[in-house]
Amino acid sequence: RKMSWTWSGDLLRREIAGKETEGLTDGDYIISISGKDDAGNPQKTEVQFKVDRAPPEIKSVSTDKDIYTKNDVAVKLTIITNEFARSMFSLEHEAKGLILNSVMTSTKNAGADNQITVFDTNLNSSLFEDGKYIYTCLLSDDAGNSTTVTGNFVIDRTPPIIQKMTVSPLILAADSGYKADIFFEVEDNTAGSDEVAALQGILQVLPANSEEPIYTKKVSVTTGKENKFTYFGSALPKGAYHIKLKVYDLTAMLLRQAVT
Q1: Which of 84, 136, 206, 217 yields a CA-CA distance of 20 to 30 A from 91?
Q2: Of 187, 192, 194, 253, residue with least CA distance to 221
Q3: Contact (Cβ atoms closer than 8 angstroms) between residue 213 and residue 203
Q4: In angstroms, rounded to a whole number, what is the distance separating the alpha carbons of residues 157 and 172?
């Protein structure tokens, strides 16, 4: 789009604003001003400006992991944008509230995009308890346009604990239908968060003095209440047996097991 003005006199001051820039698309522009004085001497000057109404474009947001289970690792949050940007970063613990605020600026990577490492810290710090963390990044470019990115990650370094497990009756006979009810209770440090409350149990029946299970079954596990599973042993030959219960949390690691 071209704009032109004609003037005479000793002084010109004109601001390019309002409707005169409404039709301009985002991009770089040059204003060229030419004139002559009364003696015919020419003068020309140019001014560059940029129209930028678009917020930074978020191309990717990533952390190293969704769930962190060890102390000797770092949580690193990286955001890739299409232009230089600054980030106001805040991190909250789901139960404890605000942990920290920080300001980061992007750095140009080898490609055409800009990369911001908005958060990078080692989990050995006592600042980070187990639980769910929610991060918020307000990204702003040089023109003041902004966009917000939110996400979360989980720190879970503490295994669930099997508090107790009992079997009733202890002798399976015809009058009991050859069945036994197995009761167990489990606690988990982050059971209040849906992301880390999902527990899974593996129940096994093994002959006495043997570690080779003859029966294996996945069982549901709920924290804060007594869990019950009914086992039917009519196919078992006479003898002594023991029951092993293994409990896993969302990290899919073997964390605790109880044997009775």
Answers
A1: 84
A2: 187
A3: no
A4: 39
